[in-house]
Design brief:
By secondary structure, the chain is of the alpha/beta class. It has 15 helices and 15 strands. Helix 2 (21-40) crosses helix 4 (107-134) and helix 9 packs antiparallel against helix 11 (326-335). Keywords: Cytoplasm, RNA-binding, Transcription, Transcription antitermination, Transcription regulation, Transcription termination.
Amino acid sequence: MENIGIIESFAEFKDEKNIDRATLMAIIEEAFRAQLKKKFGTDENFQIIVNPDKGDLEIWKTRTIVADDDVEDPNLQVGLSEALKVEPDFEIGEELTEEVKLQDLGRRFVLAFKQTLASKIMEHDSGQLYKKYKDLEGEIVTGEVHHVRPKAIIVLDDDGNELILPKDQQIPSDYFRKGDTVRAVVKQVEIRGNKPQVIISRTDPRFLEKLFEQEIPEVFDGLILIKKVVRIPGEKAKVAVESLDDRIDPVGACVGMKGSRIHSIVKELGNENIDVINYTQNLQLLISRALAPAKISYMNIDEENRRVDVYLKPDQVSLAIGKNGQNIKLASQLVGMEIDVYREATEEDEDVELDEFADEIEPWIIEEFKKIGCDTAKSVLALSVEELVNRTDLEEETIQEVRKILSAEFE
């Protein structure tokens, strides 16, 4: 039949989009049958032969031969006199099969067919894209920055598909320009309208987990398991790891000599500080490791309410909390419990307000000490008698008596 240029463009599409021949034939036939149903009410009496490689589309129509006066549906029936023009031996009840020229179906039919075919191709393309990236959720993909927008970056993969890296999925220190290469993890695939939208992320904990798999052979081989990853993107992260081989130190294997193995991961994440922790099912030990470098004195664990009270020496409290509370926040997320940090009471920490001695020391004497900034027992005892005499209006005898009362409290 005459080639009217409908099929060739989609044969090219087959090569560009890597659609196999059988699939393209099925799409073309499906689009054509959809239009036949609209025009004739049925497509059951049509046979469609598609050859997308050559750009050929053949349409064959079969009708039952009836008496000329009995033709009720010209699409399904043909009068005997008309059939005899094709073949003089035809009889009533037999079937007549004829080739239908595409242009004979009308210009409107052809235009509608083109639109339906384009729509079916797009649906197929979208379906393939959705399936491809749905299977890749949680995996790292690489693409090139195509466009930088205020709220997102548009990245193209090797096949020219659009991937979206939203602003809130970028590490704060990230800065990309058109043409830059981006590595990120596929966070989710959504259907917006009829088109799939692939959201990628560099802040998702799975991104760090997959970077460990790529950069550390033991993790890739399954000898070291990553039990949990928690992050404050671009700032700090904690990764709990476990070795399935007693001969392998999981923390040492992940960090490497002088941090050589983890360096590339830290660099990829904008110098994010990564703590690698040896996982254990011993909750108390895991909490201690999670709060490192702080050294815990003791703790009270309430597993029912998922809370733990941790007590530390005064000089360890700031280490446990970390910069802007990052260390304790990540430790809580890692162990799955709310951690409260308390300063451990020591003898040096114990002190008593001077007002507590009002029944033994005259109020006006207490006020004299307060005037020089001494409002607790230890603040008074920290100064010598001579210095107190010089700085207050009190007699030496009075001061000696007060010191005696205060000292007795601690004895």
